Amino acid sequence: MHICENRDHSGISAPTPEDWLIMRHLPVETTSFVDRRREQAAGRELLTRARLVTLTGPGGVGKTRLAARIAARAERTFPDGVRFVHLAGLDDPDLVPLAVADALGLHDHSAGPPSAALVDRLRDRRLLLVLDNCEHLLPACADLAAALLHGTAGVRILATSRHRLGLTEENLLDVRPLPVPDPDGDLSAADGYPALALFADRAAAVVPGFALTAGNRAAVARLCRRLDGLPLAIELAAVRMRVLGVEQLLERLDDRYRLLTSGSPAALPRHRTLRAAVDWSHDLCTAREQLVWARLSVPAGGFDLETAEEVCADGDRLHRADVLDAVAGLVDKSVLSREAGPEGVRYRLLDTLRCHGLERLRETPGEELATRRRHRDWMLRRAAACERAWFGPGQRDIVARLRADQDNLRAALDFSLGTPAEALAGLRLAGTLWFYWHACGAPREGRHWMERALAANPEPTPERARGLWVAGLLAGCPEDLTRGLRRAEEARDLARELGNAAEAAHAEYVIGVVRLFADELPAALAHFEAGVARGPVPGQHLSLVGLDQVELACALGFLGHADRAVEVCERTLGLCEEHGEEWVRSYVLRMLALAHTVKQDWPRAERYARDALRLKLAVHDVIGLALTLDLAARIAAERSACERAAVLLGGADRAWTAVDQGRWGSKALNSARRETESRARCALGRAAFTTSYDRGAGLSLSELVGYALQEPALAARRPPEGPEVRLTPREAQVAELVAEGLANQQIADRLVIARRTAEGHVERILNKLGFNTRTQIATWVTAQR
User: Fold this and answer.
1) Nearest CA to 423 among 448, 457, 450, 447?
2) Exposed, middle or buried: residue 73 (CB in 10 Å: 0-12, 13-18, 19+)?
3) SS3 for 737-762, per residue?
4) Whole-angstrom Cα distance, residue 437 to residue 706?
5) Do 506 and 541 touch, CB atoms closer than 8 A?
6) For the segment 524-537, what is each residue's pLDDT rounded down to a tens digit?
7) Residue 180 scores a pLDDT above 70
8) Do the Cβ atoms of 462 and 449 come closer than 8 Å?
9) Which end of the chain is least crowded, N or C, by CB within 10 Å?
């Protein structure tokens, strides 16, 4: 089935939508990282000899940032990279392996346990997996870690949690609060204490020119000691420097601390300290800011301003304009952090502050339920707007927006399907997201939500009719096709009973696709011929209208009716171009390549295959890339370019490992692959074939497409020819930051230079190295290390 994949102050450069299709990397540091050299060294050393390292410590101690720093420094030792999995926004333990698969860019279609599928896909990989915030999902995280440790040899795990996972293989690194000097002792070397350095750094951000001096060191040391050296507590206190001096700050915090901790003798001291700091920050907010803080504990992960307004504004106590002012105030007080989003600024509550807000929200009866309803309804409206716009020019923006809101969608679905009288809305939301599950690389998660929603909604409704065909659409492995067909047929019958022609047509599309991938080619051809001849029905989504024609062309091509396939494709291209659509269009181009392959018109077949690859890379359609690379390898073999065929085949097989190594059991796909390998192996010999095949398997998708397009992406794999290229020290520094994945504004912030200066450095690096993309710079930097 056709599926494509796809911390916190001002000055962050928002990633492009294309970045958001593929971002699974380490969190970007937007404030300075203070010390932790000992812990960094210990963490890296542990990772050299242990496959599971867990950073433990109290909330607010800085485990996430330390893990990201350790992972960044260790990244070069992992050929398959580092992937960071944010778990704070998850509540359903069943989603843990799905979140990991998403971070790894895997698009599993199998029907078995998701952890087993992960093990199968990662068996030959050497990578570091960072699992952040495991404490509320400990059994699920422990089970997954155990499966990966026992089933793979090259996967290592770095976890953060307030509690250990409890595995025998686990090595613990206790992340302690920052050391603080004795405020009554010798403070001549106090500048070297990281707790004081952290306070001074954050205070200078709100009071320009602030620095540690002989006159304030003792007060700062006493304040940091009162806060037990907890980084989050120190940062929250430093923000108060806008209106208070250090001595005033210490005096008021001491009063607040005694008040809050006197009634909780059973609580751990550091927990009481953090609670005191957070509660004090809460009390310093206005009543409006406190209410917005509480309501913003409902969105999971990050959120944009529009989401904040929709969730918080109730037309009674809060209006939209009130929310904007409150958000600004919470950002100013460092309660909300800013981060880059696909369409500008997004906001996030740290997990500790989110838990505090949720406690406050629950103090008023009915408040949490009402807020969660507003949040769910907004996610439903946003999803519906994205679905309406899906067959159009903004697909990359839509995917980026929904990926950024993934945790919010999960939270809305979980609330709806776990709350009495809300289940139908959950089914409606899951069904509205059919295009996201299907076209954006989340089939297994889509199946998880669809099956749960269908079980909660057995009544014969239009929502159920849609849910049934969506569940069928997301079937993609041989063992699930029969069940998928039954779901689609049930959906068609129910839609007809309800008089819903659009949902019946959608179900008919799924029935035809299942037949096509079950190798029932004549039946699939007759099915799609009838559907296309019928024409669109009112309410039918244009993407599925276009895909009806794509699958018709596919069946025609497989059965040798190439001229008819070309006619169908040219008609469908017109539909896509009229609407500025890219995803369906990329499949049409592939079908044109297939049709011209059948006609043995190799130049046209190769041209269309290249066009398809170029567009599929642009929309990051991993399954489409795998399918088209298979075809490009076949075309190369037929044109006696057998070394090229072997390289493309190695790359195609590597791409398929992220989807289904068995190519869904399709006889047509697998027989074509075997023929390509046989032809190339016979022409090259075993040794030369293996060399070329391994070369292709070692390329990234962008490099592989560059190779297929005969463009210079492969130049990134080796230094340029000719005189040795020398970068200036500053250019080398910028190149390293590019390799870390930083955008130009982030590089400028890190180096304290203007954005235009950073852009100039990047441009000169590209020119010196003869490259066209930042990815090539990153690969070149890695090769030079």
Assistant:
1) 457
2) middle
3) HHHCCCCHHHHHHHHCCCHHHHHHHH
4) 28
5) yes
6) 999 999 999 999 99
7) yes
8) no
9) C
* Coil vs helix vs strand at 53: strand
Q: Pull the structure tokens for residue 779.
A: 């690969």
pLDDT of residue 266: 44
Distances in Å between the alpha carbon of 306 and those of 375, 381, 382, 513, 777? 11, 12, 10, 38, 36
| Angle (nearest 5°) at CA 292 between 291 and 295 | 90
Question: Letter for the amino acid at 268?
Answer: L
DSSP string for 230-285 = -HHHHHHHHHGGGT--HHHHHHHHHHHHHHHHTT-TTS-HHHHHHHHHHHHHHHTS
DSSP H stretches of helix in 362-461? 367-389, 395-404, 406-417, 423-432, 434-439, 443-456
Collapsing DSSP states into helix, strand and coil, what is residue 170? Answer: strand
Taking CA atoms, 437 is separated from 3, 226, 475, 536, 624, in Å, by 8, 49, 11, 23, 15
* Token digits of residue 330: 């919470």
Separation CA 203–CA 235 (nearest Å): 8
Max Cα–Cα distance, the chain, nearest Å: 89
Structure tokens at 477: 């492995």
151: DSSP letter:
H
Q: Rounded CA gap, 783 and 79, in Å?
A: 11
Looking at residue 18, what is its pLDDT?
42
pLDDT-based confidence at residue 711 (cuts at 50, 70, 90): low
Rounded CA separation 60/235 (Å): 10
Give this prediction's pTM: 0.81
- Non-local (6+) Cβ contacts of 549 within 8 A are 528, 532, 568, 569, 571, 572, 575, 588
3-state secondary structure 678-702: HHHHHHHCHHHHHHHHHHHHCCCHH
